TrEMBL record:
This is Uncharacterized protein. The lineage of its organism: Eukaryota, Metazoa, Spiralia, Gnathifera, Rotifera.
Length: 148
């Protein structure tokens, strides 16, 4: 499920490293974790990989089940058997993109029950590469395959 009001589009003409920061109050009920994912062009940004938002994401050496893959970026869970608690959540994702048009969104998944996201904001920091042949920045490979 997408978190409404957090979509942003960019048209870039040089290789660009994006740092995307999500901040919100998050509530999950005691029955299961709540995962927040930052997405680009409907792909999930997990670690230094961009993977499809489908069951095929288990094919990227991130885990043996969708639950494990989704929780690899972190999750919020209340361990009380009685009540849920609203807690602050920060999620940061980096992605290095080739020139093109990109749409960013935030998705949320509550595993077994309901979750609530309140007061969410997303900020973007962009660093453009001067070198068109730079295929990586640190651990982040240049993503060239899914520009709109």
């Amino acid at each position: 499920m997408y978190v409404t009001g957090l979509n942003e589009a960019f048209h870039i003409n040089r290789n660009t490293l994006f740092k995307v920061t999500f901040l919100a109050g998050v509530y999950s009920s005691p029955q299961g974790p709540l995962v927040v994912q930052i997405m680009v062009n409907d792909y999930l940004i997990i670690g230094n990989k961009v993977v499809p938002n489908t069951a095929a994401r288990i094919n990227y050496s991130l885990g043996i089940s969708i639950d494990i893959v989704d929780m690899s970026n972190g999750f919020q869970q209340v361990d009380s058997g009685v009540i849920g608690i609203m807690l602050p959540l920060t999620r940061v994702a980096y992605v290095y993109l080739a020139p093109g048009v990109y749409s960013f969104n935030v998705g949320a998944r509550s595993f077994r029950s309901r979750g609530v996201i309140d007061g969410a904001t997303v900020t973007y920091e962009l660093t453009q590469s001067q070198d068109a042949n730079e295929n990586t920045i640190g651990a982040f490979p240049l993503i060239t395959t899914f520009s709109k």
